[in-house]
Amino acid sequence: MEVTLRIKRYNPDIDVKPVFKEYAVQVEPTDRVLDALNEIKGHQDGTLTYRRSCAHGVCGSDAMRINGRNRLACKVLMQELGKRITIEPLIGFTVIKDLVIDMDQFFASYKAVEPYLIADDAPSHGERLQSPEQRARFDDTTKCILCAACTTACPITWTNAEFVGPAAIVNAHRFIFDSRDQGAARRLRVLNSQSGVWRCRTIFNCTEACPRGIEITKAIEEVKRALLFEKV
Amino acid sequence: MAYHRFDAVIVGAGGAGLMAAIQMAGKANVAVVSKLYPPRSHTGAAQGGISAALGNTEEDHPKWHMFDTVKGGDYLVDQDAAEILAREAIDAVLELEHMGLPFNRTPEGRIDQRRFGGHTRNFGEAAVRRACYAADRTGHMIIQTLYQQGIKHALNFFDEHHLLDLLFTDEGVCCGCVTLELRTGEVHTIHAKAVMIATGGFGRVYKVTSNAMAGTGDGVALAYRRGVPLMDMEFYQFHPTGLYKLGILLSEAARGEGGILRNGEGEAFAARYAPTLADLAPRDMVSRFIHQEIREGRGVDGKDYVHLDLTHLSPELIDAKLPDVTDFARTYLGVEPKTAPVPIQPTAHYAMGGLPTDVEGCVLRDEMGTVIPGFYAAGEAACVSVHGANRLGTNSLVDLVVFGRRAGRHMLEFIANTDLPPLPREPEFVARAEVTNLMARDRGENVADIRASMQVLMMDKVSVVREARGLAEAKAELADLRLAYARVAIQDHGLRFNTELTEAHELGCMLDCAEAIVAGALAREESRGAHYREDFQKRDDANWLAHTLVTKTSGGLEMRKKPVTITEFEPKERKY
């Protein structure tokens, strides 16, 4: 079937402002949006620029706005989308070129929550013990692939560059609720600050945007409760 | 030109590269180069598990793991390396746990383990639970955990830098690399005492592959162009269960948890070929079983696929242990694995071959084992060789952490005892000339067309089953594609984030890898592991119990043999 992709194009070295360009492409209904982008790049316009790698929704490279929603281009099939499809870069960060956004602020926020196990008691031999129930406590937030779909779906992020954003909170949650970790207090201090969890207005955009199905709003609420009741 | 000086530069930030970098953190000044962001590396797509004879759920021993690795590799494995792999796997898995990796747990709180293809107890008696896992996203957890450690240790990441060239002194000492910074288009020279290639595999030379689009063999190909030999390139593993037409991997864990392959008649055919392990026979064999079924007309509806049947497993088990792979079937094929079988076909998955190294990760110049000073490799880009002619499931992740770790530690020693070698004159000359050449034409051959032709011919003639005529045709067609590639034109002539340029560069790298695969496959006139020759159907230990080394010289390709290290297990016929 033939579909038309309207893609927001912008190369700051050449263009005064972003413009939509239209591309007609032959696709199979079961093709991914990424397949259509590859077809355009390969045979119509080699200058079209986007990030991609694994092409099956696990590496987190190709998050973009597809018909107004943040999705992974490799995880959306053409049959879901109709004949005219609008593709734009994620909102809230500077566009480097076309669908490629500047990820510096995103990774800076991620780093701010100290996203690594903080524990000084590694046993001399064998593993640390953790019950299946303790392991299940933070399972959902281990799924994050750092694609930025959630953070760039959040209206608070759009208007407040200081807000750490949902992805950073998800990755803080992953450690705060890990029974092996001892750094909860440090992370909670960061998340209790001006730019922390209290900026969240419980809009659920992040949860809707997550391609991994993480219940992000719930995770954020759990962090808020941990701060309020000092219970982890 | 941007110039940087480091003690060591690691190219590739997947499992092997990060594991090496973490060993060196705080003790040396290390640059970590990735053409992606590190957590996007393809290690993250690994699903099923990482084997180690922890014995947490049943008796197990490193010696059994070593034996399975050797036998799984059809006795082409270097047994000294396999012994290290099996022994240090235990330490490496525990180190990952100490770093915070969230493994699934037993009721007692220990790391849980499950069955995987070719892993057995007591030298082949029956399947053993050896694979440590985190649902079916073990690789995701490894790459996340290692990246987290990289942040903790404040590693010097060069994110979104594309490798353009490797630098050697006139004496053949490795002294750095040249990269293209995607964001600016600026060329960087990274000058270092040690360089490690951890750029992963090159599955994208095939049409149907589980590999990421980034899997284009850049580091392997650029070393090959610089005269470094490649080892055992003919051994390319096809994973039995890729999603039909797409090649997306459905982990062997699906069969480890009880999934069954069925042909068009509904028959569970694997047991007919491998009575003891059936569906859990090693991958090379199961891929050939599927190929045979399809060829004899027992594909589903007479087509070129069979079914992976999980419908008899409990929905709770599927949700708990196979959530991602079942989601792939739903998302991409619209099939609900709890109630319907999933169409699958073998998919190009893993290069057993690569840059020849010793057990410390030092790259070798020749069949005598002469080390190239300052040049290291680990992970899928390297060939130690612990996988021989066919890798067992989970052993890629073991390889990454065990030999990534060893390479990192050895580099630390090396750089402490060596001076910074001088750069060659005009270090960026080759890299810049290539970029200029790729940008030079407005009209010419199309990158996507050449790439597609290569992928189709490799799939048709150099995949699960090979024979001389097809391989000779592949060689000639690849030579034609290389001529076309010399006239390639791209539209994007800008500096900023020019992925059309990097794709063109990657295509050149893939053509090199494909050439080496075909050369090895033509030379090896026997069938062993993943290399199956229709015209030489038997393993031939008298002539071919040896690694191949292929070297690019000005006079063409040179093929040599390197002896296999055999310590404990004499080659036997491989039955399962």
Description:
The complex is a heterodimer of chains A (232) and B (576). Chain A folds into 2 domains: 100 residues, Beta-grasp domain (Ubiquitin-like (UB roll)), CATH 3.10.20.30; 126 residues, Alpha-helical ferredoxin (Fumarate Reductase Iron-sulfur Protein, Chain B, domain 2), CATH 1.10.1060.10. Chain A has 8 helices and 7 strands. In chain A, the strands form 2 sheets. Chain A has a 5-stranded mixed beta sheet, covered by helices on one side. Chain A has a two-stranded antiparallel sheet with strand order 6-7. In chain A, strand 6 and strand 7 form a beta hairpin. In chain A, helix 2 runs parallel beside helix 5, helix 5 runs antiparallel to helix 6 and helix 5 crosses helix 8. Chain B has 576 residues and is an alpha/beta fold. Chain B has 3 domains: 219 residues, FAD/NAD(P)-binding domain (3-Layer(bba) Sandwich), CATH 3.50.50.60; 110 residues, Alpha-Beta Complex (Flavocytochrome C3, Chain A, domain 1); 109 residues, Fumarate reductase/succinate dehydrogenase flavoprotein-like, C-terminal domain (Methane Monooxygenase Hydroxylase, Chain G, domain 1), CATH 1.20.58. In chain B, the strands form 5 sheets. In chain B, strands 1, 2, 6, 7, 8, 9, 16 and 17 form an 8-stranded mixed beta sheet that branches. A 4-stranded antiparallel beta sheet of chain B has the order 11-14-13-12. In chain B, helix 1 runs parallel beside helix 11, helix 3 crosses helix 11 and helix 13 packs parallel to helix 15. The radius of gyration of chain B is 22 Å and the shape is globular. The model of chain B has no long low-confidence stretch (mean pLDDT 97). At the A-B interface, helix 1, helix 2 and helix 3 of A face helix 3, helix 4, helix 10, helix 13 and helix 15 of B.
